[in-house]
Amino acid sequence: MTESTYRIQGATGEWEVVIGLEVHAQVTSQAKLFSGAATAFGAEPNTQVSLVDAAMPGMLPVPNRECIRQAVRTGMAIKAQINKWSRFDRKNYFYADLPQGYQISQLYHPLVGEGEIEISLDDKNPDAETKKIGIERIHVEQDAGKLMHDQHPTRSYVDLNRSGVALMEIVSKPDMRSPAEAGAYLSKLRTILRYVGSCDGNMDQGSMRADVNVSVRKPGEPFGTRTETKNVNSVRFVMAVVEHEANRQVDVLEAGGKVVQETRLYDPDRNETRSMRSKEDAHDYRYFPDPDLLPLELDDAFLEECRQSLPELPDAKRRRYEKDLGLSAYNAATLTADADTARWFEALLAEGARIQKKSEGEVAKASANWLLSELYGALNRLGKSLEDSPVGPEEGAELLALIADGTISGTIAKQVFEIMLETGDSAPKIVEEKGLKQTSDTGAIEAAVAKVLADNGDKVEQYKAGKEALFGFFVGQTMKAMQGKANPQVVNELIRKALS
Ligand code: ADP
Ligand code: MG
């Protein structure tokens, strides 16, 4: 069964789930959408609030060019139509974290129109099963402040640091059909945002959160009534919400009830969603064009600059790694799933190609394998991420070059790497100081082989009688006698010669 045929079995037959996500992504920018106040995460409450963000009378919003630029670049990265003319609207409602009494958003004329994101449903072979998820629009809007209910027994406080921070609301079409598709979509979107650099994608810090729209229907029937679960802040939780909410709706419908269109909240501790309020329609918010702001008009030079500034995107990079560098589909997908990993790998590869005599493909394969097994293994053990890796790409490339030119064996390289992690010393220095150079000195190796064969006369007999698997034993013993420093090829040759 493939993920695209996810079904829920009810007494009256099979149900299909329909999912659309609205993702709020905080735009990476020093300043807010309409003011110069800072946006740093974790600052003291109310230290990053301008008079505009506090909605002092008479203050006027001024659009921040960088925020618009980031949203346009994001739109381009998802192959979307960019609207050269767009406009800001006021969405009116009262809440204590919203001093203006309205949020400046874009309802009627969003900055970015229809686009698409391709997801993959097979991690091991990303091109084997793909699906395009339509994007309805991306609009730009302000974030609200934050209420703090845990500071005082009888009072609530308001922190306006987030008030006015720029968000992109990225609205998908109702194109997803399983928890796995919803999870893959959100991960892919986050990957793209990080590549583009328009959002840091840190869901645990709230810079990306998803409203999860879910409905169920019998396959082939029109869409059912949906519920919207707000502010879900991890990929895993999004998948759990879909799973839970779809099953809840099936239960309601199977019992003869109706799904109520409403806003729900997810409780990760109990893994359930709860009704929050009945859903408002757009007209409840009395949207109207914001009279304080002119329409946004983008010229061709601006759009061209946005386009030029886009990096190579994850799918293109993954395919290039496979085709041009000859990496396995799995390695290419793993290395490109995250912009930082790809950057690290490319730095490792560039330095390797510079200092080694091997072809780019050979360097690439060795670099990919080392990064994904040795380096990742070590970082996991140390509880560190790639950014704070004690060994950088240049140092890694030096180590790999020593293996490539035969100075050290793969086994010794593991030891050298451990010492690099501990001391911060370079691989050539460690190899030199500890005398770890691999030897192809046939005299020394011949002597070791002779001793191993003499000490294991019984095994030599068995080998000669046909037990060929013992060859590996002789190699292992010889390597051990040479403290891992013998060139394995030479060892193999000399044992073969001695036994013939
Ligand atoms: P609203 O503005 O009221 O939130 P939209 O039409 O903009 O409604 O849709 C919001 C989100 O809900 C979109 O991501 C869309 O894909 C999704 N959606 C719409 N209809 C359904 C449905 N029947 N089932 C699941 N998701 C839906
Ligand atoms: Mg909505």
Automatic annotation (TrEMBL):
<dbReference type="GO" id="GO:0050567">
    <property type="term" value="F:glutaminyl-tRNA synthase (glutamine-hydrolyzing) activity"/>
</dbReference>
<keyword id="KW-0808">Transferase</keyword>
<keyword id="KW-0547">Nucleotide-binding</keyword>
<dbReference type="InterPro" id="IPR017958">
    <property type="entry name" value="Gln-tRNA_amidoTrfase_suB_CS"/>
</dbReference>
<dbReference type="InterPro" id="IPR014746">
    <property type="entry name" value="Gln_synth/guanido_kin_cat_dom"/>
</dbReference>
<dbReference type="InterPro" id="IPR018027">
    <property type="entry name" value="Asn/Gln_amidotransferase"/>
</dbReference>
<dbReference type="InterPro" id="IPR023168">
    <property type="entry name" value="GatB_Yqey_C_2"/>
</dbReference>
<dbReference type="GO" id="GO:0016740">
    <property type="term" value="F:transferase activity"/>
</dbReference>
<comment type="similarity">
    <text>Belongs to the GatB/GatE family. GatB subfamily.</text>
</comment>
<dbReference type="InterPro" id="IPR004413">
    <property type="entry name" value="GatB"/>
</dbReference>
<dbReference type="InterPro" id="IPR003789">
    <property type="entry name" value="Asn/Gln_tRNA_amidoTrase-B-like"/>
</dbReference>
<keyword id="KW-0436">Ligase</keyword>
<keyword id="KW-0067">ATP-binding</keyword>
<dbReference type="InterPro" id="IPR006075">
    <property type="entry name" value="Asn/Gln-tRNA_Trfase_suB/E_cat"/>
</dbReference>
<feature type="domain" description="Asn/Gln amidotransferase">
    <location>
        <begin position="343"/>
        <end position="499"/>
    </location>
</feature>
<comment type="function">
    <text>Allows the formation of correctly charged Asn-tRNA(Asn) or Gln-tRNA(Gln) through the transamidation of misacylated Asp-tRNA(Asn) or Glu-tRNA(Gln) in organisms which lack either or both of asparaginyl-tRNA or glutaminyl-tRNA synthetases. The reaction takes place in the presence of glutamine and ATP through an activated phospho-Asp-tRNA(Asn) or phospho-Glu-tRNA(Gln).</text>
</comment>
<dbReference type="Pfam" id="PF02934">
    <property type="entry name" value="GatB_N"/>
</dbReference>
<dbReference type="GO" id="GO:0006412">
    <property type="term" value="P:translation"/>
</dbReference>
<protein>
    <recommendedName>
        <fullName>Aspartyl/glutamyl-tRNA(Asn/Gln) amidotransferase subunit B</fullName>
        <ecNumber>6.3.5.-</ecNumber>
    </recommendedName>
</protein>
<dbReference type="Pfam" id="PF02637">
    <property type="entry name" value="GatB_Yqey"/>
</dbReference>
<dbReference type="GO" id="GO:0050566">
    <property type="term" value="F:asparaginyl-tRNA synthase (glutamine-hydrolyzing) activity"/>
</dbReference>
<dbReference type="GO" id="GO:0005524">
    <property type="term" value="F:ATP binding"/>
</dbReference>
<dbReference type="InterPro" id="IPR042114">
    <property type="entry name" value="GatB_C_1"/>
</dbReference>
<dbReference type="InterPro" id="IPR017959">
    <property type="entry name" value="Asn/Gln-tRNA_amidoTrfase_suB/E"/>
</dbReference>
<comment type="subunit">
    <text>Heterotrimer of A, B and C subunits.</text>
</comment>
<dbReference type="GO" id="GO:0070681">
    <property type="term" value="P:glutaminyl-tRNAGln biosynthesis via transamidation"/>
</dbReference>
<keyword id="KW-0648">Protein biosynthesis</keyword>
